[in-house]
Amino acid sequence: CNAMIDGVVPGQVINVSKVRSEIETITNVADKAFLYSNIAGYLKKKDQSESFLRSAMLETEKIGDMFDKLNRFNNCLLQAFSSNPSLSRSIARKTMESMLADNNGTYQDYQKYVDTISEHDYKLAEDMLDMVDNDPARMQYKRKLRERLVSTKRLDVAKKDFEQIGKLTKEEQIQFFDKQMEYLVKKTNFSK
Question: What crossing angle do the helices spanning 46-61 and 29-40 adopt, rounded to 10°?
Answer without folding.
Answer: 160
